[in-house]
Amino acid sequence: MARIPSVAALQRRLNEAKARDAALKARQATAEPKVGSGQRNPTDPLKYESIFTASAFNVNASRPSVAFFGGAAALGLAAADDSPKLPRGFHPSKIRATRGRAAGTRKVAELSKRPYLKYSVDADNDTRGTYTAPISSNTAAGLQTLYRNIVNAKKDDVGEYGRLAFIPERPLFSSSGSGAAPAP
Q1: pTM for this structure?
Q2: Domain extents in the chain
């Protein structure tokens, strides 16, 4: 059987819901339409080697992310050539870094007004909190070596509560004309 919530708990949930509703209405009332965003994340075309298809593709990689991880050579990427673009639905292997703080910062949720601790670094003027870039090798051992080298080089930059993660390649196993990967 479920526990019957107290009146105080129900009142708190009602107040949080009212605060969310009021904040959402205020945000919608003052929201200005977005007109063009410009390119905030410049990219460079680079050559990516697929581990599954044994072929090369040109990918667009974030310039700040590639620089953060040590350049295209550290990621196993080369200068773009006449290789084809990635097929629709194909996702290259990636490495993602989230910078963290040594101690949490107290934040308050905008809509519910609930307090929480945040350990990741917020993006400031020229500083980013997260970096994602493709990482390429034609063998699994090569990918592992590249990833370990980057982790060893960047573990101090991401901080105590930062994270470095490897996202594996998701190739297309079917080319049925739709350009999409088959349903699992």
Answers
A1: 0.69
A2: 43-167
